[in-house]
Write a structure and sequence with these properties.
Alpha-Beta Plaits, single chain, 35% helix, Ribosomal Protein S5, domain 2, 308 residues, binds L-homoserine, alpha+beta, globular, 2 domains, eleven-stranded mixed beta sheet
């Protein structure tokens, strides 16, 4: 086998978009990961970490998303090969912005092409989801689908289908304060059952949220984006600063404020460009030491690039 390689960029994502626990996610860029995958004769999977957040990635291969996806791809292909993956980590790990999902999506995309796996859309999502075992302990598919396909993705594992929609070009402001308990723990604190009223509220809110994106109706978006009774009410208790951040962003005109994935990122959506310096200054005066980032939805998912 000769040496072949691909370099792929992969956007970050906001999972559990409002009421869409495990089923709605939005790709955002920046930040992004860039991943180089090289296949050659021989055996073994080698992962190298580089970039701004390289030192925050786990050293143990079995805790590494890229390693898990590359190994699964070799299993699917039924071949022996040497795989070298270099991850240029631009997305801060454990920040709630789909860091492991972005790397996993990039490796899945590259391995599919380099090993001629010929996976369809759902096959790619399933392969990439192996990387989530490293951080979440389960193969949730919302982050990887957003990074793979871009835009707003609706993930339905019962019918094995992802549907994507372009997302309006609004502003997305991210506030990161402190760190999160791991995703597995943040899943374990969710109730095992819900009232019929809660279920109906989430069904209606998800449907209207998707309709608002489809129609570009920001007023409807604003009315339903926070309307979650499945995950957010339980998870925000882990973030004592949630109320301060939410109130500040709403005062600055946010259409709505949600937790991104399992946190700690808190996200505000804005029709007009918000004043990041003022917002950060106000949060500091209120005693926080946040990292504040302004970004946009990315209607593009993974793509091959020629830089590295
Ligand atoms: N849907 C996943 C969860 C996203 O909330 O557990 C984690 O990033």
């Amino acid at each position: 086998m000769g040496t072949e390689e691909l370099i792929v960029s992969s956007p970050a994502s906001i999972a559990n978009l409002g009421p869409g626990f495990d089923s709605l996610a939005l790709a955002i860029k920046p930040p992004q990961d860039v991943v180089r995958v090289r296949v050659s004769g021989g055996e073994g999977v080698v992962i190298r970490n580089d970039g701004e957040y390289a030192s925050e990635l786990p050293n143990e291969p079995s805790d590494n998303s890229a390693y898990l996806v590359a190994n699964r791809a070799l299993e699917l292909a039924g071949v022996k090969a040497r795989i070298e993956v270099t991850v240029i980590k631009g997305i801060k790990p454990a920040s709630g912005l789909g860091s492991s999902g972005a790397t996993s999506a990039a490796v899945a995309y590259a391995m599919n092409k380099l090993l001629n796996l010929d996976l369809d859309q759902w096959g790619l999502v399933e392969l990439a989801s192996y990387g989530e075992l490293a951080s979440a302990g389960v193969r949730h598919m919302d982050n990887v689908a957003a990074s793979l396909f871009g835009g707003l993705v609706i993930v339905n594992s019962t019918v094995r289908q992802v549907t994507r929609l372009d997302f309006p070009g609004i502003y997305v402001l991210i506030v990161i304060e402190g760190s999160k308990p791991n995703t597995g723990y943040m899943r374990s604190i969710l109730p095992k059952s819900y009232t019929l009223d809660d279920v109906v509220t989430n069904i209606a809110s998800v449907a209207q949220l998707v309709a608002s994106v489809f129609k570009g109706d920001l007023s409807l978006f604003s009315r339903v984006i926070e309307n979650d009774r499945v995950a957010m009410p339980y998870r925000i208790k882990a973030y004592g600063h949630w109320g301060i951040v939410k109130d500040t962003l709403i005062r600055h005109g946010a259409l709505g404020v949600i937790l991104s994935g399992a946190g700690p990122s808190i996200v505000g959506f804005f029709k007009d460009e918000p004043n990041v310096v003022e917002i950060e200054g106000e949060l500091r005066k209120l005693g926080l030491r946040p990292r504040v980032m302004l970004t946009r939805p990315s209607n593009e998912g993974v793509r091959e690039v020629n830089y590295y």
